[in-house]
Write a structure and sequence with these properties.
This protein has 185 residues and is an alpha/beta fold. The chain has one domain: P-loop containing nucleotide triphosphate hydrolases (Rossmann fold), CATH 3.40.50.300. Helix content is 39%, strand content 17%. It contains 7 helices and 6 strands. The protein has a 6-stranded mixed beta sheet with strand order 3-4-2-5-1-6, sandwiched between helices. β3 and β4 form a beta hairpin. It is globular, with a radius of gyration of 16 Å. The chain starts with a helix and ends with a helix. The mean pLDDT is 86. GO terms for molecular function: ATP binding; ATP hydrolysis activity. Keywords: ATP-binding, Nucleotide-binding.
Length: 185
């Protein structure tokens, strides 16, 4: 017999679909595309968790009409709760739950390696088939690692030179980061 703690440490038995939505530049619509994608999946009868991993500039909850989430990713990162599923918030859309990002605490903006790995490990353990991750802009290791945990990545770009240049750098750095992780001893 397994305890509830042991059950929560298992990887789900179904094939999880994790999609990360990213890009090199802020303001291109990553959060809106993440929210719309999640809503459309729920309309198809899928159960979805939407994660706002834009830790320093979380605003995904606003796209779903949630004014002030009572619990956020900061509560998990700061170990106020043990399990990532404990920070899930219901959305106004049936079948869609979200994990609101943390934008109010300076020490959360750049989680350390162990905090990030704990978060990534727990994302993969979430007991749901579809996970959409809205990541922040830029090419920091944290941003790239949240992008690379997905089965499929979606890059958002606008038709302006800085956006195109930034998404090119994002893609190039994602590939280099993936190679670096894959080739590490």
């Amino acid at each position: 017999m397994t305890t509830s703690k042991e059950e929560s440490n298992k990887t789900p038995s179904f094939k999880q679909k994790i999609w990360s939505v990213g890009g090199g530049k802020g303001g291109t619509g990553k959060s809106l595309i993440s929210a719309c994608l999640a809503v459309e999946l729920t309309k198809m009868g899928k159960k979805v968790i939407l994660i706002d991993a834009d830790i320093g500039g979380a605003n995904l909850h606003t796209c779903l009409g949630i004014k002030h989430p009572s619990i956020t990713l900061a509560d998990f990162i700061n170990k106020k709760v043990d399990e990532l599923k404990d920070v899930l918030t219901d959305s106004p859309i049936d079948g869609l739950r979200m994990i609101s990002g943390a934008s109010d605490l300076l020490n959360i903006v750049n989680p350390n390696y162990s905090q990030k790995m704990r978060l990534i490990k727990n994302i993969r353990r979430l007991p749901i088939e579809y996970i959409i991750i809205d990541i922040g802009a830029g090419t920091s290791f944290n941003v790239l690692d949240f992008f690379l945990i997905s089965n499929s990545g979606i890059l958002v770009v606008s038709p302006e030179p800085t956006s195109i240049e930034n998404v090119y750098h994002f893609l190039k750095n994602s590939i280099l980061r993936k190679l670096r992780i894959s080739l590490a001893p």
